[in-house]
Amino acid sequence: MNLRSLALAPVLVLGLALPALAEKIPLTELSGYLNRLTTVTSEFTQVNPDGSISTGTVYIQRPGRVRFEYNNDNTLVLASSGNVAVFDPKSGGPQQYPLSQTPLSIILDANVNLGRANMVTAHTESKNATVVTAQDPQNPQYGNIQMVFTANPTQLRQWVVTDDSGQKTTVILGEMREGGSIPASKFSINNEVARRN
């Protein structure tokens, strides 16, 4: 079994497993859980749209901030001040676009409400995990995010972002470290631009 198969295994197990006896976690509980998350640090494994695998560390500071640092790679993805910046060593400056146009904004929103009309398009239980697919109700063309939660205690374990062109990126989280403080400078797009110049 190659590395790609191993990385995809958790995704496939969740997708193909028979329903278990556990009940799906209610949307109100999942919304409350996400709203209580403030600061999170976790190792992650990412399955890219082309099937390649990346690993690294993600820093989340809700609302509105995330930083993906990749191992053995100078690529960096930052979200802050309503923008997403992708720093790719192969291109010049960062590619930037509004956070509101990405499905990840649903997790980073100041007030997550999965009960909003037309936000959740699927809510199922599979292999003792609750799987929720959500989109921006006003802008479904921006794509969607499929989030996988485990129970007791409720915890976000992975997500799959399907962007506006149908490309899928899976992020599988390792052990999540919640709480603590992350320096604001870690989320500064301007600081990163200056550092790289």
TrEMBL record:
Q: Name one Pfam family in it.
A: LolA
Q: Which residues cross the membrane?
A: none
Output the SUPFAM superfamilies linked to this UniProt entry: Prokaryotic lipoproteins and lipoprotein localization factors
Q: Which keywords describe this protein according to UniProt? A: Lipoprotein, Signal
Q: Quote the InterPro entries the UniProt record gives.
A: LolA/LolB/LppX, OM_lipoprot_carrier_LolA-like
**What PANTHER family does this protein map onto?**
OUTER-MEMBRANE LIPOPROTEIN CARRIER PROTEIN
Protein name according to UniProt: Outer membrane lipoprotein carrier protein LolA
Organism, per UniProt?
Paracoccus subflavus
